[in-house]
From TrEMBL:
SMART domains: RING. Residues 34-85 form the RING-type domain. This is RING-type domain-containing protein. It comes from the Eukaryota. It comes from Fusarium mexicanum.
Length: 360
């Protein structure tokens, strides 16, 4: 037992809670250090303490927790407490949860807090809202690149950004990139149909099937060209590699073929939100594509280092005539493609009904 003058340094919540509950004056003597960076999490002058309590009971400062989680996600490392190795993963997406538990420096502490936190972990299922929205937005960006020529985007030093916002909950908003917007882009009716196919599946996963007559698409979408990341940015190789992958697809397929693949990707994206297993399998396939895109980046980077002028012009000249003809007939192809790919489905509404029966 500490004396009334000793500083309170316990950064393990069960121990700290008992000390404070047994000695209410202990709250005035907090000198708690983060277990990762060793910086003070408590401020004696204003009686505050900025600390996150993990479900295992260990406490760390918010910046370290955020950096620790981001490292685990970026490197596909299981999320465990850095002190006791308690498994913090509670969701299919690998995130620990939607909300953190902050330490409240009051004179009475809840000694049953950890039991409740661990019970919540056992009850959480599926991917968190942020990860689902991010998966949707990134999937829609790939779908869009089937319809927007990536060559001018590459040549202009730009990126394609997709923004998704829940129509009745404005705080649920995700942007694939956050660099400066250069130009807003229109969303064609054909592209909106593809967006709706994927997004309605996510809405159904959250709230169940919509009643007849309810608003069909619960999300707002925005498309924009934005400035490319600087070359030292961690996401720069992926963005370049993705554009190069779709540049090859534009060379490989005509408008009809590209829209057919876009529809196929929209169906796969919609299917990702139908179960935990489907979401996990979809994310594994996305990671495989990201590895492929990195190889596209490596090839592109090697070419531009040898001859910077060779990057765009030759490939563009070889396909100018073909792309001109495609663009003239693009809307006719686009209007027909959904019917062609749907097989027995003669319009988008019947396709949605088919989708609802088979993936919900």
């Amino acid at each position: 037992m500490s004396s009334p003058k000793d500083p309170i340094t316990a950064a393990y919540y069960p121990e700290l809670a008992k000390i404070i509950n047994n000695d209410p004056t202990a709250i005035d003597r907090l000198e708690i250090e983060c277990g990762m960076c060793r910086d003070k999490m408590s401020n004696l002058e204003d009686k505050t303490c900025s600390a996150i309590i993990l479900p295992c009971g260990h406490m760390f400062c918010p910046p370290c927790v955020q950096e620790f989680r981001q490292y685990n996600i970026s490197n596909d490392v299981p999320s465990r407490c850095p002190v006791c190795r308690f498994d913090l993963i509670s969701r299919t997406c690998g995130c620990p949860g939607d909300r953190d538990t902050l330490f409240d420096p009051t004179q009475h502490q809840d000694e049953d807090l950890l039991a409740r936190l661990q019970e919540q972990i056992s009850r959480r299922k599926g991917a968190c809202v942020l990860c689902q929205m991010t998966t949707l937005a990134r999937g829609l960006r790939c779908i869009t690149l089937y319809l927007y020529d990536p060559v001018p985007i590459i040549k202009g030093g730009l990126m394609l950004r997709v923004t998704v916002e829940k129509r009745d909950e404005k705080e649920i908003r995700v942007e694939t990139d956050k660099t400066e917007v250069v130009k807003q882009l229109p969303i064609s009716p054909e592209l909106m149909e593809l967006f709706t196919i994927a997004s309605e599946s996510l809405d159904t996963a959250w709230y169940g099937p919509r009643a007849p007559g309810e608003e069909s698409c619960p999300f707002n979408f925005e498309l924009a060209l934005c400035k490319r990341f600087p070359e030292d940015h961690e996401y720069w190789p992926h963005r370049i590699g993705q554009l190069q992958r779709f540049r090859f697809k534009w060379w490989q397929y005509d408008n009809l073929g590209r829209l057919a693949h876009a529809l196929e990707d929209a169906v796969k994206l919609a299917g990702a939100f139908t179960s935990d297993v489907a979401y996990k399998n979809y994310k594994e396939k996305v990671r495989a594509k990201e590895r492929q895109e990195f190889m596209y980046f490596v090839s592109w980077d090697a070419v531009r280092r040898i001859d910077p002028d060779e990057d765009i012009e030759d490939d563009q000249n070889d396909t100018d005539d073909k792309n001109t003809q495609d663009n003239e007939n693009g809307r006719l192809y686009a209007s027909a493609a959904i019917q062609v790919v749907g097989g027995v489905l003669d319009n988008v509404h019947r396709f949605r009904a088919f989708l609802a029966r088979h993936i919900c």
